[in-house]
Design a protein that fits this description.
GO terms for molecular function: glycerate kinase activity; hydroxypyruvate reductase [NAD(P)H] activity. Pfam families: DUF4147, MOFRL. The structure is a single chain. By secondary structure, the chain is of the alpha/beta class. It folds into two domains: 182 residues, MOFRL domain (glycerate kinase, domain 1), CATH 3.40.1480.10; 230 residues, Rossmann fold, CATH 3.40.50.10180. Helix content is 38%, strand content 18%. It has a six-stranded parallel beta sheet, sandwiched between helices. A six-stranded mixed beta sheet has the order 7-8-12-9-10-11, sandwiched between helices. The C terminus is likely disordered.
């Protein structure tokens, strides 16, 4: 394959993985029949707008429900809204919550609390819901929650640790939405963006029992060296902020279904690559770890593939992390992973790689125009050299976006309206170009 053919194949494979997880594909088969009363749609996360759109269309077209029996609210990331008529869609901050998310969560809880025993509360939950539904516990304000979120994101903590803290500083997370809706029937349909598809971690588990504790939340802050604000420390020592556990009456009428998983997106990528004659070696569908360290491991594996008589791809999913070391850098774990590959694979013949977040945004400032990741190959080295750029220096400052904007290798998809975590493909085609020096 030529360099352009490699890059094109990687993008087709990534797009196939994203398409497999779109709400239009995975939500309708699981939507329940309407009850005697109302269907109250409550959605959150990067796919919330699309989920609301799909559910509204389903109940209007199949059952003829009008606004008297179909209502609700979806809170999604800025730029991810979809057109609806009966279910309101609002945009809010991610990954750092904002005032729109604060109001959206308050309105969501009000709708849940107003549900009666004949109503169905349909919770449509996708990754990003933790930031989009922000309802600080007693004694906390939005600014403190924002600062805590930023500190956790900079610390390199994995998502389950971050969400353990979030659940104990909230009035909606950690099963509290189900408690608000009780005794109405609650059906949750979730698109998983977390390793091992744990419902208590997806969007901080607003409708399921929470196995974590206040002590776990305090331990997470200590482990990742996040000094809590005094109000946070007080909240995490208050027994009133303990989350509802298994056996709580809040969950006696609550069902939960994971309708799409990262593994299904990975399977779609595999099909696309194999149809193109590429051997796929799955490294793992739910990897965790520091992005640059995982990239170093994958680079070593890729070097071991040189000399094969056919193209081979190393494929992985999961969510990596970045510990912030620099100041003012931009980029998320996918771009940092790709930049580490550029540093480590610069002299490998015939390689190309794509690392991207299936929601269309990898780090960034919360804008719909944020990069989804990066597509890199030996040509990246040439362009970097021509501009006097060194991958290692940009890694030191955690400025992968700055590097890839300069080389023209950012992956731009725009909002995809779903989220099943990250996809990373390292393709080795030994019939590629001659070796190059490292950047």
């Amino acid at each position: 394959m030529s360099p352009d053919e490699r890059r094109s194949l990687l993008r087709r494979a990534f797009d196939a993985g994203v398409a497999a997880a779109h709400p239009a594909v995975c939500i309708p088969p699981h939507l329940p029949a309407p009850p005697k009363g109302r269907v109250i749609v409550l959605a959150a996360g990067k796919g919330a707008g699309a989920c609301a759109e799909v559910a509204e269309k389903f109940y209007r077209e199949k059952y003829g429900l009008g606004p008297d029996r179909l209502t609700g609210l979806a809170v999604t990331r800025h730029g991810h809204a979809r057109p609806t008529e009966f279910v309101k869609v609002i945009e809010a901050g991610h990954p750092v919550p904002d005032a729109a998310g604060l109001q959206g969560a308050a309105d969501t809880l009000k709708l849940a609390e107003g549900a009666g025993p004949d109503d169905l509360v349909l919770a449509l939950i996708t990754g990003g819901g933790s930031a989009n539904w922000v309802s600080p516990a007693e004694g906390l304000d939005l600014a403190v929650k924002q600062a805590t979120t930023k500190a956790l994101l900079r610390s390199g903590a994995p998502i389950d640790a971050i969400n353990t803290v979030r659940k104990h500083l909230s009035r909606i997370k950690g099963g509290r939405l189900a408690r608000a809706a009780h005794p109405a029937k609650v059906v949750s349909l979730a698109i998983s963006d977390v390793p091992r598809d744990d419902p208590s971690v997806i969007a901080s588990g607003p409708t399921v029992p929470d196995p974590s504790t206040l002590a776990d939340a305090r331990a997470a802050l200590e482990r990742y060296k996040v000094t809590p604000h005094p109000d946070v420390a007080k909240a995490l020592s208050d027994p009133a902020n303990e989350s509802p556990k298994p056996g709580d009456a809040a969950f006696e009428h609550a069902d939960y279904v994971v309708v799409s998983r990262p593994a299904e997106a990975v399977a779609a990528v595999i099909r696309t690559l194999e149809e193109a004659g590429v051997e796929v070696r799955l490294v793992g569908a739910d990897l965790e770890g520091e992005a640059r360290e995982v990239a170093a491991e994958h680079a070593a594996m890729a070097r071991g593939l040189v000399g094969a008589d056919h193209p081979i791809a190393l494929l992985s999913g999961g969510e990596l992390t970045v510990t912030i070391r620099g100041e003012g850098g931009r980029g998320g774990p996918n771009q940092e992973y790709a930049l580490a590959l550029v540093r480590d694979l610069g002299d490998l013949p015939g390689w190309a790689a794509l690392a991207g977040d299936t929601d269309g945004a990898d780090g960034g400032g919360g804008s719909p125009e944020d990069p989804a990741g990066a597509v890199v190959d030996a040509g990246t080295i040439e362009r970097a050299r021509a501009k006097g750029l060194e991958a290692a220096r940009f890694l030191d400052n955690n400025d992968s976006t700055g590097f890839f904007e300069a080389t023209g290798d950012v992956l731009l998809t725009g909002p995809t309206c779903t989220n099943v975590n990250d996809l990373r493909i390292v393709l080795v085609d030994s019939a590629g170009p001659s070796p190059h020096n490292r950047a």
